[in-house]
């Protein structure tokens, strides 16, 4: 069964403002190396290391699952240090 995946208006705006390729958030979501639940925001996080803007970096996609529909909310690069801090502090809990 294929799940339904939607881009929110906010995500579309972020793609435009940050100059991301339109398919990048979907790729990060589908190919995530790790997934987390953000205790502070109540959203899920998909994380993938990929080549973007001239170098390899971590990219996250924030998403929710509602009524069987995955809503991709936003996308942005994040440093390894930020990821480590959020996991160590307990804010991000590993999923799967």
Overview of this structure, please?
The chain is α+β, with helices and mostly antiparallel strands and 96 residues long. The protein has one domain (4-95): YaeB-like fold (2-Layer Sandwich), CATH 3.30.2310. The protein contains three helices and six strands; from the N terminus they run E-H-H-E-E-E-E-H-E. It has a six-stranded mixed beta sheet, sandwiched between helices. A hairpin with a 2-residue loop joins strand 3 and strand 4. The radius of gyration is 13 Å and the shape is globular. It starts with a strand and ends with a strand.
Name the strands of the widest sheet in spatial order.
Answer: 1-5-4-3-2-6
The radius of gyration over CA amounts to 13 Å
What overall form do the CA principal axes indicate?
A: globular
Assembly context of the chains: single chain
């Amino acid at each position: 069964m294929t799940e339904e995946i939607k881009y929110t208006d906010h995500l579309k705006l972020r793609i435009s403002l940050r100059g991301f390729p339109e398919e990048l958030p979907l790729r990060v979501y589908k190919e995530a190396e790790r997934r987390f639940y953000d205790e502070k925001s109540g959203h899920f996080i998909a994380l993938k290391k990929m080549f973007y803007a001239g170098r390899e970096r971590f990219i996250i996609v924030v998403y929710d699952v509602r009524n069987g529909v995955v809503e991709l909310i936003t996308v942005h690069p994040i440093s390894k240090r930020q990821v480590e801090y959020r996991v160590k502090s307990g804010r991000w809990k590993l999923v799967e």
